[in-house]
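Hi P.,

Sorry for the delay on this. The queue was packed all week, but I finally got your sequence through. Input first:
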Amino acid sequence: MLQKYKFLLPGLAFVVTLIAQANAQAPTLQEQLAAQYKLTKMGSDTSGASVVDAGTLMAIQKGGILGVPYTDHSALTTKYEGGAVHSPSGLVVAGKKSILGHFSTTQGEGQTTHLFQKGDKVYATKLDVNLEKDTVSMLIVGSDTKADPPAYNKANVAFVFPKGSLAKASAGDVEDTIGQLLAISDDSQQGDQQQQGDQQQGGQQQGGQDQGGQQQQQQEPQNISMGMTTDQVQGALGQPTKIVNLGPKQIYVYKDLKVTFFNGKVVDVQ
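Then the structure:
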């Protein structure tokens, strides 16, 4: 139908094209959330797991997230739905243990799970948006400072939204829901602000040094000596406010002095 009236309404075809391009260029919910929550890169050395590149630091707002040692092959999933935390059931935990044989014992013999507490600080290492299942999943990692030595635990948190709502939800609405359980930590914001402040302070110091250097250069006295050429004088004092031409004799008039040249060389300064 559009092709039939395209020649009658060329402006309509152009508008439709613009709308299609705008929709194609709109960032996805996954991209918007990824911009809000910078993911953390983890690594390992002889002492165990460690943070290689720290991302957005978050503080747990409600208890009930069940984690396992970071070295485990998979993580337990805690669901957050309707404002409530739903920890993995005992059957799920027992099933996981029977399948894997045992959990990693890097945190001590017999310790298989770790229950994150309210106020614990964690990072996200993975973020996934599933519009079909109406879920946003985060793989979080946090350090258990009570263990000796301190070790990292991980957990998968699935934020479950009402059926069919996630595709229509804005990034801000999703972030508000995530923030009910995993709020961006003030320490993370202060760190960003501190980094920006350090950069600004460094820039100001550098600017002050540059300005101080310029002032010092400006304050250095300029020497005008007999026999200097007109170019040399202009290089030292700049352009004169007035030039008096008297044949072979020239007078350069500056704000506070006069320089007299004869045959292009300084013969007198007043």
